[in-house]
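Hello forum,

I keep getting stuck at the same step: I have a sequence, I want structure tokens, and every attempt I make locally crashes halfway through. Rather than fight my setup again tonight, could one of you with a working pipeline run this one for me? It's a single chain of 246 residues.
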Amino acid sequence: MILLIVSRDVQSFFDFTTFFLKEHLPSKLRLIKSYRGRWVDVCTDCSHLDFLMIGFVMMELNLNDLNDVDQLMLNARLRDEIEPYLDESVTMIDTARMPTSMENEFLASMIAWERAPILPLSQWFTPELKLLDCARISDEALSQELHQVIGRLFEKNIILSDTEHLSDRQLYQLIGRSILPSMEKQISIPGRYLRWQCYDEVADEDIWLTYYASDQERNDWEAANYETAPARRSLPFSRKMPQPHN
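Reply #2:
Ran it on my machine without issues. Output:
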């Protein structure tokens, strides 16, 4: 089944659709660009369009054990709760063909998105997460502190990816300078994660080509830019990061 979602409000809808697609279809969509440092799975760059249309194939999800009557009652409640947030900017096509349980999960995700506060990541923590002055601590102490910070971020369902081109000190500085101040929707749904890609494919194109791009991506880049990509190098800083259990 194909679900098409159309929006006039590209920015808001792009944010929500990215969140929903990433959590529900992580293995079915191709990563083609970076958006504000996070993974975005879309078919094309639609930032210039008046309407954003995204089509994707629905797949089996791990649904809860509610029976059909419970699902219908939940559906009615969720539809009432989502009503204040719906206007002409969002139209969902073919949702009637979705299983009720899947529609309920979609509606619950949208409601959570709409209601979530926008806060700096540092303020997702109580008290606010603040880093030490890395210029005043040794490499060993900084590595231990970094390990604790990564663990605390993971506790809030924040996962850092593509970190192994950075030293511990560089990653610690990136967290303090760019990640913790970032204003993000604080979505409180178990099993949902904010994934932060620790390089930008535009600003840090050489890093992407050197360490992370596939052979095909490197070949495509060379064909498009009429020049040789930087030599591939091994990632210099092996680092085991916490990952969610499947």
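The CA atoms of residues 53 and 77 lie 27 Å apart. If your local run keeps crashing, start a new thread with the error log.
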